[in-house]
C-alpha cells in the first residue's frame, strides 16, 4: 500500500478520491462548494465549543475528527507513527491563527478554493492566485535559510494528544446531540440556520473523513506542498494529485447538477477580489512557513507530530478571534477589521521569515 500511494498513480488516485467524495458530501447535506473545507470546518468546531458565538457557523464537524483518526490508523498500520515535537511551537501557533484569519477573509482553505472553482465560482481564481503568491514568497524565505528548527523525538503520549482530543470531540457529539433544532445541547452549540446547520449524515461524514485521513497520510497529500515543490524543485508529483482533485470534482459536480458558473450569488463567498487574493496570500504564506496546508497539518498531527497539532490548535483559536473581532468575511464582503488583520498577519509572517534563519 505504501509503495502505491507514494507513486504517481497513487497520488492521482488520492486526488480523484477526494475530488469525488467532497462533492458527494455537499450532495448529502454539506454547504455549497464546501463538501470539504478544513478551515471552515475547524471554524465550525470552534463555534461548537463556544470559542465564538457566530450562531450560523457552529457544528462539530466529523470530517475533521476522521482526518486525524484515519491518519493515526494508517500511521500505526504502516509503522509510521513517529511522536515528535519542539520546533518553535509558539511560532507555529501564531502562524495557525493567522492562516485561519486569512482563510476566513477569503472564505475557504486551499481545498475549498479548488472545490469552489470546480463548482463554477470564478472568484476562487483570485484566491488560488493569492495562495500561490503566498507560497512563492515562502520559497524566497526558504532559499534565504528560513527554518523553524528541528523537532525532537518525544513520548508516544505527546503524539497521541491530538487524536485523543478528536476522540473527546466525538464523544461530546454522542453525549450531546442536537435535539429538536435547539441551538445548544449540553456543552455544545449547534447552528439552526446558515452553513453550520448544513451537514451530511454523521456516519457518512465520519467515514469519508477516516478514508481521506488514511489515504492522505500514506500519500503525503498536500496542496501547499504541491505548489512549493513546483516552485522550488520543479517537481510535479504532488501537483498531479491536486489537478486530479479538481478534475474529479468538476465531473461529479456536473453529474450532480452542482455547477453554477459566475461571480455573483455563489454559496458562502464574496466578490471583493482584492481581498480574496490578499486573504489567501496571507494563508498561503502561513502554510508555507509552517510546512503544510491545513489538511496536511491534521494528517501530520494524527501520525504523532506535536508541532502540527500546535498549528491546528492555532487555527481553531484563530477562528474564535476571527469571528469575535469582526475579521471574518461574509457573503456581503470582508469583515470590519479583516483588512487590518491581513496586514498585521503579513507583517508577522515577514518578521518570522526574516528573523528565523538557520545559522551557518
UniProtKB/TrEMBL annotation:
Keywords: Membrane, Transmembrane, Transmembrane helix. It holds the Pfam family Sulf_transp. The chain crosses the membrane at residues 12-29, 59-78, 90-113, 125-142, 154-176, 196-216, 237-257, 277-296, 308-328, 334-354. It comes from the Bacteria. This is YedE-related selenium metabolism membrane protein. The lineage of its organism: Bacteria, Pseudomonadati, Thermodesulfobacteriota, Desulfovibrionia, Desulfovibrionales.
Amino acid at each position: 500500500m505504501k509503495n502505491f500511494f507514494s507513486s504517481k498513480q497513487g497520488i492521482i488516485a488520492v486526488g480523484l478520491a477526494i475530488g469525488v467524495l467532497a462533492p458527494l458530501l455537499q450532495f448529502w447535506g454539506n454547504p455549497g462548494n464546501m463538501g470539504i473545507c478544513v478551515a471552515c470546518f475547524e471554524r465550525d468546531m470552534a463555534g461548537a465549543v463556544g470559542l465564538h458565538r457566530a450562531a450560523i457557523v457552529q457544528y462539530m464537524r466529523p470530517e475533521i475528527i476522521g482526518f486525524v483518526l484515519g491518519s493515526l490508523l494508517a500511521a500505526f498500520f504502516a509503522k509510521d507513527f513517529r511522536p515528535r515535537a519542539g520546533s518553535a511551537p509558539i511560532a507555529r501557533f501564531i502562524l495557525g491563527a493567522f492562516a485561519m484569519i486569512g482563510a476566513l477573509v477569503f472564505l475557504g482553505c486551499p481545498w475549498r478554493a479548488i472545490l469552489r472553482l470546480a463548482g463554477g465560482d470564478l472568484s476562487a481564481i483570485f484566491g488560488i492566485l493569492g495562495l500561490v503568491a503566498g507560497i512563492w514568497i515562502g520559497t524566497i524565505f526558504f532559499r534565504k535559510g528560513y527554518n523553524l528548527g528541528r523537532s525532537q523525538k518525544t513520548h508516544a503520549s505527546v503524539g497521541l494528544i491530538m487524536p485523543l482530543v478528536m476522540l473527546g470531540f466525538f464523544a461530546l457529539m454522542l453525549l450531546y446531540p442536537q435535539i429538536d433544532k435547539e441551538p445548544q445541547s449540553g456543552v455544545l452549540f449547534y447552528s439552526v440556520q446558515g452553513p453550520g446547520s448544513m451537514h451530511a449524515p454523521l456516519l457518512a461524514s465520519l467515514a469519508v473523513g477516516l478514508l481521506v485521513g488514511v489515504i492522505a497520510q500514506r500519500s503525503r497529500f498536500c496542496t501547499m506542498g504541491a505548489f512549493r515543490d513546483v516552485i522550488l524543485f520543479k517537481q510535479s508529483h504532488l501537483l498531479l494529485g491536486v489537478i486530479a482533485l479538481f478534475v474529479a470534482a468538476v465531473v461529479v459536480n456536473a453529474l450532480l447538477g452542482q455547477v453554477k458558473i459566475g461571480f455573483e450569488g455563489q454559496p458562502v463567498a464574496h466578490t471583493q477580489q482584492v481581498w480574496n487574493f490578499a486573504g489567501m496570500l496571507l494563508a498561503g504564506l502561513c502554510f508555507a512557513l509552517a510546512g503544510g496546508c491545513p489538511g496536511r497539518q491534521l494528517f501530520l498531527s494524527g501520525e504523532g507530530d506535536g508541532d502540527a497539532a500546535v498549528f491546528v490548535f492555532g487555527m481553531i483559536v484563530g477562528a474564535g478571534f476571527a469571528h469575535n473581532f469582526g475579521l471574518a468575511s461574509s457573503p456581503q464582503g470582508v469583515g470590519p477589521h479583516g483588512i487590518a488583520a491581513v496586514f498585521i498577519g503579513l507583517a508577522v509572517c515577514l518578521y518570522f521569515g526574516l528573523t528565523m534563519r538557520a545559522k551557518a
